[in-house]
Protein: Cystathionine beta-lyase
Organism: Nitratireductor kimnyeongensis
Amino acid sequence: MNEKNKTKVGDNTRLAHMGNNPRDFHGFVNPPVVHASTVLFPDAGTMASRNQKYTYGTRGTPTTDALAVAMNELEGAAGTIIVPSGLAAVTVPLLAFLSSGDHVLIVDSVYHPTRHFADTMLTRLGVEVSYYDPSADAGIATLMQPNTKVVLTEAPGSGTFEMQDIPAIVDVAHRGGAIVMMDNTWATPLFFRPLDHGVDISIQAATKYPGGHSDVLLGTVSANEACFERLLEAHGALGVCAAPDDVYQVLRGLRTMGVRLERHQQSALSLARWLEGQKGVARVLHPALESHPGHEIWKRDFTGASGLFSIVLDGGREKQAHAFLDALKYFGLGYSWGGYESLAVHVQLSDRTIAQPPKEGPVIRLQIGLEDVEDLRADLAAALAATVKA
């Protein structure tokens, strides 16, 4: 991490201590896991007024509060809700701020399940959905409508890692009366804090780097003061609450997220730079590389890069992509990322409606885990060699 986001204490110090005061729980370092549905009231008056901190399991527990407090500190947020998955972290705020007759603008490089939700559930509910080119930036002004209520962005973009000028988008959206939501799972709040750049709602798939071990599903949604009350009300109305053991695992994962991210970043950059010079690779799609079209935006706004990027194979189609994947030994074939193990997937881009996918060949997304770089490099070299024979 560079000097841009330097605070009074270091990120790893914050991660080690936030979200829990051991004195609140008899000195125990980690907060207890509270399994709760029913909460008792001391008397009828308190029950009628609900005048106590906890009233029912869906409305929060000490366990969910601990993670929410930690995320508030990381995000610089007025409040955070905890939901059962990264996808729920996208769908809940969209449902909270969109109504029938509204219009939403979504970046065309968005996470595919988000697009599926927008094209099915939102349109069925009477919301007009439009997609914009990830390179549009302030140019989204031409797409804004009087009924545009939300602009949903994601940077870098899923699969192809396009950067966006978030402050420029925020300026246009706010002048048009819309709020801005951002899926910031790639960078985490350690490398980019959306709310500091004017975004209203920051979305995290805590399944990824906060959890860090490929064994939990969770999402967090953090909002500024103007938006949190409405977000919290929708969260309660929908009843989308997370299980306490999952919340605890993510809170525990946060303690080591900083050191893990540094390793992910270093290994991914090392491999990305090496891949740029390899036969069979047309392009490397990593915003921290000087060759990336969005590098200057990344350099201006972000303080680091995570372990996820893509390569474009030079020529060939599905057959070559399958040969590449099947030759891998240490990279598992799986759709998630952010865990300790490396993963690879053939990116399907047929859902794009505005942005053009790379034309040179198949796109392979690589999640760089915590293995030794030398072993991963040898694995990728073997996979590239396999594409030549396919």
Observations:
- The chain has two domains: 3-253, 257-389.
